[in-house]
Amino acid sequence: MSDSDDALPQRRPVAVAVGVLLHPDGSFLLASRPQGKPCAGYWEFPGGKVEAGESVEQALRRELREELAIEVDAVQAWNSCRIDYPHALVDLQFCKVHGWRGQPRPCEGQQLAWQQLPVQVHPLLPGTLPVLRWLAAERGWLGATHDDAAAAVQDPGGDASSSSCAADATR
Question: How far apart are CA 17 and CA 2, in angstroms?
Answer without folding.
Answer: 36
